[in-house]
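Q: Predict the assembly, please.
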Amino acid sequence: MAIVTDKVGIVSCSGEDLPEGTISRIATRIVMEKLRPDDTVTICLPLFLAGSEDERAFAKVFPTIAVDGCDKKCAEVGTNKYSGKPVATVVVSEIMKKYPHLKVKSRDKLSAEEKELALKVAEEIATKVDEVLGRKK
Amino acid sequence: MSKNGKVFVIPCSGIGKALGTVGRTATYEVVEKLRPNEATTICLPLLTIGDEAILKLTRNNPCISVDGCPLQCARKNIEASEGKLAASFMVTDVLRENRSLKPEAVTELGPKGLKLASILAEKIAAQIDEINKNDR
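A: Predicted assembly structure:
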């Protein structure tokens, strides 16, 4: 199994039941589409259980960052259980404590405040990506 | 408020595809607007990691899976967790019936994608009514 060293895997919780889960997903997409598009790959977390050994090899092939909405840390726990130990974890509810003025309410359409928080989370993920790749940006 | 006694509408995570976002958007339309008293949702990854409280709820209440792609993560996670699967929806099936309503992107569905989600939401709501009429 070839280990990839020039890309980082990002596994986000899907958090359908919580606004923080939506922030996790949107932040992950911002990293993949805008901040670090050439450096990142992702996989749907539930595919670890629903998929094959190929999918479960994800965190063994890519150094992987877990992005979790809440302290249940499904992304970290699920990745560790089925695939491999994540090299880092980002927890949205922890980052939110740094920005108490940014309120999160919606699970669906994000407000301007929620989009700003998603960008803050995305920037923290991107910083972790750079650390994993040994780069400074 | 307790989730027990409701139909569980469980969408896939669909982080990589816009059709996953359609499934989630449809789910929110059902549980927040169309059938808020009859339906609820949960985080699918809680089934993936085997959260005991969620396993108990999905084994004791009817579940509807909503999947964005043929890998059907929602359906397979419910089945693997021995949840009470009452019905399954595939976004691709609804798109096939409405080929002009192609969503734009994962983060922004656009008007066509939102319309597709609303059509799917109506189908899910009708299925909830069937479940409540026949199976409980």
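Chain A has a mean pLDDT of 92. Chain A touches chain B through 33 residues (CB under 8 Å).
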